[in-house]
Specification:
The protein is mainly alpha-helical. The protein contains 2 helices and 2 strands; from the N terminus they run E-E-H-H. Strand 1 and strand 2 form a beta hairpin. It is elongated and about 50 Å long.
Amino acid sequence: MPWFRRSGWFHVPVSAPGVIITVGALAFCVQVFWAVDRNSHSVTDTLYGVYPFIVPTLLLLDWVAGRTSEVRRRS
């Protein structure tokens, strides 16, 4: 059973494991943003601080979603 369905550029979770992984990744990203932004003095400080955490997290989420999504067959 697939965890995600491809919708354009994005993967949409269609099962409980997909939702759990997506919510966990987004919760981690929000927590990192709040922690970094609390000690930042400018927008640039915040962006430089969150980049090493958020980008790999979203890339990992995309990789997992790509591996566990439905395979579309071309006719």
